């Protein structure tokens, strides 16, 4: 609820426009005002509450956004590259725990009540807030005035459309913030990364206390001789609810590839479940790109390992999944594409009403494009037409099963490639020192 009201009764039914009304206490003049609440469904996201408070006595107004759902099992970070003026219109939901950044300027928006807006408005607000006190800064602190003036000019150039491309991000430990995707997003234009919260982040959200143990005793594997295909149980803290949970681990050998560790987490308290795959070994000199030509339904049963650092692409399907989006997966081709489809569909909040499916503000053109995309993906999972998928892994930790006993599989093309500077930075390889580190430590 909006922080303006401390009392009031929510009407059992909304008015004819779907708005709920609460008589609320004005935090400015301490008289009674009115909070109006409108539930709205965001395309590819979920339901939120738009709250607007007005006081007829003093004229004070306040607008906020609240999530209508619960804290998500994982935090999420969205990264988006703006390349033309149309990108400014992408919808943004920022909860009060969401952190919005203009990455090119290393500029971060302070925490504030939730917002439902677009990227143009977010950047404009940063510019306006910085410019507001500039006249006073010019007199009191000329150095700060000059430094901020340069940033304001860069923000102005971004809004004028003369500084493309530039990148923004939105990171929310609650998982309740969002930047709108589009079926036309390609390469590294749009990415979403879901991550496990730390104990400190769970404390920040009120899911745990400082007194809770982040790692219960007895959870280590020190001194244990790990045997292939043996399941080991570890005691850990659930990343979703911070209660004790069980992590099952098994080391297995993938023929013609390497040893991997399969990890599955199960929480009996909140029902949280997840699985992941970790690979080991030295870092190769080059990345690896594996392309599989899918021709028959039998190809959908091939084993496939997509590591956490691997991107999944298909020009035939208009599909691109950035590294980190699905985590590590050891499954089949059918299972991997089904997970991609289900995650995308899960982002579209569907209340079961065909007229509202996809969100209150989704245009018919956008809905048509997404319907076409999902129809193509559904047909691809059934192998109703030939197409190709590509695994691009800068760490060469991904794998596709051959369908021949000896020699090369004609449906699989493998090539090595030089890692880009961006991939080197993302993987931390530019900062990694493999020679002479003993001398550095001695210093």
TrEMBL record:
Main subcellular location of this protein, as a coarse class: nucleus
Keywords, ordered alphabetically: Metal-binding, Nucleus, Repeat, Zinc, Zinc-finger
Compositionally biased tracts (Acidic residues): 418-428
One family name in Pfam for this protein: Zn_ribbon_ZPR1
Domain of life of the native organism: Eukaryota
Annotated Zinc finger ZPR1-type domain residues: 24-181, 236-402
GO cellular component, one term: nucleus
Region (Disordered): 400-443
Compartments where found: Nucleus
Molecular function via GO: zinc ion binding
Record has Repeat as a keyword: yes
Cell membrane keyword on record: no
Family: Belongs to the ZPR1 family.
Annotated function: Acts as a protein folding chaperone for elongation factor 1-alpha.
NCBIfam families tied to this protein: ZPR1_znf
Protein name stated in the entry: Zinc finger ZPR1-type domain-containing protein
Taxonomy of the source species: Eukaryota, Fungi, Dikarya, Ascomycota, Pezizomycotina
